[in-house]
């Protein structure tokens, strides 16, 4: 459907269309992304098993590393940028984040209240002992 | 070799499913035989089964939905008769059969009637309204349809091979766990939803991309017809919510197949988590269904009132508000679970808040009608019927959104009446309105108005006679899903409801008659201009049925109500701009990818249900190989030469010109 590319004048690219970049540039982007992703993964494994850092900080560090990992994936592999032709992607990402926040946050909130009011069997058992 | 499958799977001792199954099988074989003998098979294969044309796929979705509506409707009739006779007796359906029927009824009506119906209408209409030639991913579209059909097929196979779930349409554990449901029923349920869920997700991605990326010249977001907006909102919800369903059912399946403990009572499983997750999908789901219906009503009300939609921007805002808030209310399905007053209060308030944008929409439709020249054609009747019915359903919804009231009404017949009130009154009426409204566009002839109106009045009356008694029965304390009961006060209402079901069935028969009569009189009902209703949006700017490329030229949109705008500026003639010359048009080639993929998915699904592992591997490899072959294709487009485009376009222009000159002569 090459004749449709002219339609939405001056903004979004049609689906499946690549931006104009040379192959070299694109490969470089993926390689940088891969290296960063591997680094973050390796750091996560290292942090999880080490006693070099203050122990209670480990979960926080893992969460931070996980979020950084997502960022690397979004930027280098899914090509989310702040460019003007990327509004849709950024909005979609924002909507996705909102939904994840609502569902995950809501679930944690609901389940913790539920467990407070009606503890699961094993918790009741533990309370008795 | 065949896993759990043996002759005991066929219910030889139960006449009802066996006879029904046999009749359906004979009918299918008869149709197949007729198709093959008459030599229609190549036509069917080339023009429909392998088609990647969004209009054809839309029609097939609606056909699937209509067939499954008859199946789900039969279940409903059986349930109503059972409850009418099962007072202080066992009725005519044994409990295990009755339980399968209400589970199948809910599953079928939501996943294989309502979903394909609205997705079919969106597929058919949205690219036309946007003024483009196809959806963003045509072959993916076909895959989505055929995977949905696979799910429907598996549900129907369960009628004669094995059994269906006895757990209700959402299969709550621990009842749906292996210890309480050791049979294949829950597996049929889960795998058919998993496979059709992939299809739905694919359709959602496709339609979101289409609306966001493919619009004709000048079609800004704020010039899109309302139906495109609701399509966008609804498909955003599909993309966001369906993965939750897939993940939840995957966990249930892990529990059942590999001995995991996500939702078991023992070993740290949490049953309540299933309720929480499934409704985190389930509540957006009802808006996935009803938002497109709202879009259809917006189009219909505006067209048949001869006015632009009142408060277009507020409508857009209301749609997007519903889209977001629909993710903040899911707990109201399980207030009684015991999360406590804080949580219940917040979710109760959110549930009442979501009624506000819906109310905005109702007022907008009313004000669109106010001062308009209203034509009460069949689509408009469905729309007005919707407004009355949906307000009642909405108000009982606000009532059960109050947690203390919900504690009284939870899982009662009142609830059953409420959600049928909004789903039939909202989604089904919307689907029928859209069906009547866009049928001429899809097939080139109008539907018979007399039968259409009869269908409306019987369905409308039948709905009230069936479901208003259920509200009362609920108030009298009757709970849902009762196979038999001993309370004398409920009996009269059950009998009235069964009578109402009969009236509703007459409505369905009228609808079938309407189709038959219209097809026979198609020459008299022919729509020659492509604009039978004096329409306002771009789908009416092309011929009926539209050529495969939809538009010879991309329409140039200069405001809201694009086609109305062109007509009022007497630009009808601008369609005969022979001057700029026609150009070659590239269209995607037909592809059997969807059908073959779904064929292997069906095999895999069936094998997974019956634990036939070699067949699972076979189906999985087949489906994946199909995908790989498609990904490595060389030629995916063909060219329609400019002369052919010109020839097709001129025929339509002749018709339009002759109509204009006739109107001028009068």
From TrEMBL, chain A:
GO terms for molecular function: cytochrome bo3 ubiquinol oxidase activity; proton transmembrane transporter activity. The chain crosses the membrane at residues 27-48, 60-78, 90-111. Cytochrome bo(3) ubiquinol terminal oxidase is the component of the aerobic respiratory chain of E.coli that predominates when cells are grown at high aeration. Has proton pump activity across the membrane in addition to electron transfer, pumping 2 protons/electron. Keywords: Cell membrane, Electron transport, Membrane, Oxidoreductase, Transmembrane, Transmembrane helix, Transport. It is a multi-pass membrane protein. Belongs to the cytochrome c oxidase bacterial subunit 4 family. This is Cytochrome bo(3) ubiquinol oxidase subunit 4. One of its GO terms (biological process) is electron transport coupled proton transport. InterPro entries: Cyt_c_oxidase_su4_prok, Cyt_o_ubiqinol_oxidase_su4, Cytochrome_c_oxidase_bac_sub4. It is found in: Cell membrane. PANTHER family: CYTOCHROME BO(3) UBIQUINOL OXIDASE SUBUNIT 4.
TrEMBL record, chain B:
The chain crosses the membrane at residues 16-37, 58-81, 101-125, 145-169, 189-214, 226-254, 274-297, 309-331, 343-367, 379-402, 422-439, 451-473, 493-517, 593-610. It is found in: Cell membrane. The keyword NAD does not apply. CDD domains: Ubiquinol_Oxidase_I (cd01662). Keywords: Cell membrane, Copper, Electron transport, Heme, Iron, Membrane, Metal-binding, Respiratory chain, Transmembrane, Transmembrane helix, Transport. GO terms for molecular function: cytochrome bo3 ubiquinol oxidase activity; cytochrome-c oxidase activity; heme binding; metal ion binding; oxidoreductase activity, acting on diphenols and related substances as donors, oxygen as acceptor. GO terms for biological process: aerobic respiration; electron transport coupled proton transport; respiratory electron transport chain. It is a multi-pass membrane protein. Gene3D superfamilies: Cytochrome c oxidase-like, subunit I domain. SUPFAM superfamilies: Cytochrome c oxidase subunit I-like (SSF81442). Residues 43-558 form the Cytochrome oxidase subunit I profile domain. GO terms for cellular component: plasma membrane. NCBIfam families: CyoB. This is Cytochrome bb3 quinol oxidase subunit 1 apoprotein. It comes from Bradyrhizobium sacchari.
């Amino acid at each position: 459907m090459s004749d449709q590319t002219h339609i939405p004048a001056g903004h979004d690219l049609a689906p499946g269309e690549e931006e104009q970049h040379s192959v070299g540039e694109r490969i470089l982007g993926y390689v940088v992304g891969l290296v960063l992703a591997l680094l973050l993964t390796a750091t996560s494994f290292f942090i999880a098993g080490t006693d070099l850092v203050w122990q209670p900080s480990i979960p926080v560090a893992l969460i931070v590393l996980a979020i950084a990992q997502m960022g690397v994936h979004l930027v280098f592999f899914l090509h989310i940028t702040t460019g003007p032709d990327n509004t849709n992607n950024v909005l979609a990402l924002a909507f996705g984040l909102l939904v994840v926040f609502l569902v995950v946050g809501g679930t944690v909130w609901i389940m913790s209240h539920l467990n407070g009011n009606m503890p699961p069997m094993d918790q009741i058992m533990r309370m008795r002992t | 070799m065949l896993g759990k499958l043996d002759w005991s799977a066929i219910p030889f001792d139960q006449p009802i499913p066996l006879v029904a199954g046999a009749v359906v099988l004979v009918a299918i074989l008869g149709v197949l035989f007729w198709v093959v003998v008459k030599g229609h098979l190549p036509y069917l294969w080339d023009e429909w089964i392998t088609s990647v044309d969004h209009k054809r796929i839309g029609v097939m979705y609606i056909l699937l939905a209509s067939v499954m509506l008859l199946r789900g409707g039969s279940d409903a009739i059986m349930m109503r008769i059972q409850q009418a006779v099962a007072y202080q007796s066992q009725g005519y359906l044994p409990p295990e059969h009755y339980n399968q029927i209400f589970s199948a009824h809910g599953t079928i009506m939501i996943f294989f009637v309502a979903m394909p119906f609205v997705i079919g209408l969106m597929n058919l209409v949205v690219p036309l309204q946007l003024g483009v030639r196809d959806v963003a991913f045509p072959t993916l579209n076909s895959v989505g349809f055929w995977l949905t059909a696979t799910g429907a097929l598996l549900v129907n196979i369960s009628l004669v091979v094995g059994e269906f779930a006895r757990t209700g349409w959402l299969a709550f554990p621990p009842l749906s766990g292996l210890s309480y449901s050791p049979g294949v029923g829950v597996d049929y349920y889960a795998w058919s939803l998993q496979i059709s869920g992939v299809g739905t997700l694919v359709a959602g991605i496709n339609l979101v991309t289409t609306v966001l990326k493919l619009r004709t010249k000048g079609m800004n977001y704020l010039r899109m017809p309302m139906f495109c907006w609701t399509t966008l909102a609804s498909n955003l919800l599909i993309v966001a919510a369906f993965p939750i369903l897939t993940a939840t059912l995957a966990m249930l399946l892990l529990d059942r197949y590999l001995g995991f403990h996500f939702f078991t009572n023992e070993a740290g499983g949490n049953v309540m988590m299933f309720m929480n997750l499934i409704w985190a999908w389930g509540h957006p789901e009802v808006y996935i269904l009803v938002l497109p219906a709202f879009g259809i009503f917006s189009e219909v009300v505006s067209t048949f009132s001869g006015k632009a939609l009142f408060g277009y921007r507020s409508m857009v805002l209301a749609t997007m508000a519903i889209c977001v808030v629909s993710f903040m209310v899911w707990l109201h399905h399980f207030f009684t679970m015991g999360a406590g007053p804080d949580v219940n209060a917040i979710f109760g308030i959110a549930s009442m808040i979501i009624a506000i944008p819906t109310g905005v929409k109702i007022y907008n439709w009313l004000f669109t009608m106010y001062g308009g020249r209203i034509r009460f054609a069949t689509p408009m009747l469905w729309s007005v019927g919707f407004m009355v019915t949906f307000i009642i359903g909405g108000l009982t919804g606000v009532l059960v959104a109050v947690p203390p009231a919900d504690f009284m009404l939870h899982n009662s017949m009142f609830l059953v009446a409420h959600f049928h009130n909004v789903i039939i009154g909202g989604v089904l009426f919307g689907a029928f309105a859209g069906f009547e409204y866009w049928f001429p566009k899809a097939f080139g002839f109008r539907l018979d108005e007399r039968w259409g109106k009869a269908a409306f009045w019987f369905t409308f009356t039948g709905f009230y006679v069936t479901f208003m008694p259920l509200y009362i029965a609920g108030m009298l304390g009757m709970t849902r899903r009762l196979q038999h009961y001993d309370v004398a006060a409920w009996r009269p209402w059950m009998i009235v409801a069964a009578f109402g079901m009969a009236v509703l069935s007459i409505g369905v028969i009228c609808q079938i008659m309407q189709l038959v009569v219209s097809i026979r009189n198609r020459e008299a009902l022919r729509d020659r201009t492509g604009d039978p209703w004096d329409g306002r949006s771009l789908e009416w700017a092309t011929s009926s049925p539209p050529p495969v490329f939809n538009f010879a030229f991309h329409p140039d949109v200069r405001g809201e109500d694009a086609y109305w705008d062109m007509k009022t500026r007497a630009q009808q003639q601008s369609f005969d701009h022979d001057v700029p010359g026609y150009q070659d048009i590239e269209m995607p080639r037909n592809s059997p990818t969807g059908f073959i993929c779904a064929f292997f998915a069906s095999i895999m699904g069936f094998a997974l249900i019956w634990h036939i592992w070699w067949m699972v591997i076979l189906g999985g490899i087949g489906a994946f190989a199909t995908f790989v072959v498609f990904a490595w294709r060389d030629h995916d487009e063909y060219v329609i030469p400019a002369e052919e485009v010109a020839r097709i376009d001129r025929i339509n222009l002749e018709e339009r010109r002759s109509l204009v000159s006739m109107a001028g002569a009068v």
